[in-house]
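so my prof wants the structure for this chain in the tokens format not the other one, which i didnt know existed until like an hour ago. anyway here's the sequence
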Amino acid sequence: MLEDLTAKLDKALKKITGQGKLTEKNIADTLREIRVILLDADVNYRVAKDFIEKVTQKALGQEVLASITPGQLITKIIYDELVVLLGSSNTEVAINGSGVTKMMVVGLQGSGKTTFSAKLARKLKGMGRRPLLVAADIYRPAAIEQLKVLGKNIDIPVYAPGQIDPKEIATGGLNYAKENGLDTIIVDTAGRLHVDEEMMTEVADVKKLIQPDEILFVVDSMTGQDAVNSAKAFNEKVDFNGIVLTKMDGDSRGGCALSIRAVVGKPIKFISNGEKTDALEVFFPERLASRILGKGDVISLVEKAQTAFDQDEAFELQEKLKKSKFDFEDFLKQIKMIQKMGSLSSLLAMVPGFGSKIKSADIDENAFVKVEAIINSMTRAERRNPKVLNGSRRSRIAKGSGTSIQDVNRLIKQFQEMQTMISRMSKMGLNNSLLKNKNFKLN
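here's what i got, hopefully its the right format
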């Protein structure tokens, strides 16, 4: 996520680190370079100019405390201003406490509206809501079918009467929700290749008819200033409540994320960083600011872990570790849990210090796929007792998994080393006492 921007900012800030104090010259030199970086990232010219002016005003005349360096101080000032630029605080979606919550998803074609609608439905379902997806995009041939498939995959009903008037679809969806005890509708509206009056009129008519509690504008973060311009036009016509940044896991330069709130004046509410329906994060300005500066995002990492890891299974694993009975079946479970958390690069980006290194790091996103294939090619007895894995068994496993004997041997060796380490830790009594309580929860 924004790895290129992170790497460039990290390089610029390192130049001022280690200097005795902040001076007008080193502040000016550093911020001049940062201004160029922001403009290269396609940040709106006025936004970049205002941002640099605010940082300069705060930095000038500030003394460096004994415990921090000029680099740390300027980084803190930039972080604070990034948080303000991104919105200062988290803004939640509106929920109707006394009736059906009505949500509309709008945006240009190709921005990821339909996929986001399913992601939002899944997230709301996880919060205890009973959502209904409403297929009101009648112009893109695959949109209705795509929403049906996504809804089926996440076990959420889809109202899709066909290619009729979008206004009828929206009102029909609302009535269907009321009749079937569903408390939230998410209307996936039609997109266009560009902003046009016909589309705006149609969306405005649907809005007037169902009076949504929340209108979310979905924008492709990789389109830079074009995205900001289209958001501005949509807001003038539709007056949406919040912004969703999609494709944040792609080659986004960062201009859209850093400019859109300042230009449009509406909060960013979600960021999407993958194609899977669980790849949706509630937007927190301070967390993205921290990631941009390469400081990681430990809170989001912990939240992902809480979602992926089952507490009872964690307790069971703890007991196995204490008895040195950790086997390949346990290892496979842990791999699947990690995979639920997202891609390796997205997880590493949340670790402090890794953000600026992701771009150049040689990360094999398919590493777990090979490991899974090898373990799945073992019999249950072999997974539970790796000591029986002789030469002929390893050869069979390699053929069954489409890997080499060297790959199988390497995995078994690494697993044996891990078992040895676990055994030593158990003997030393280094067990996690928190997991001894099955009711323990991370808050």
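also thought this was worth mentioning. The two ends are 26 Å apart (CA to CA).
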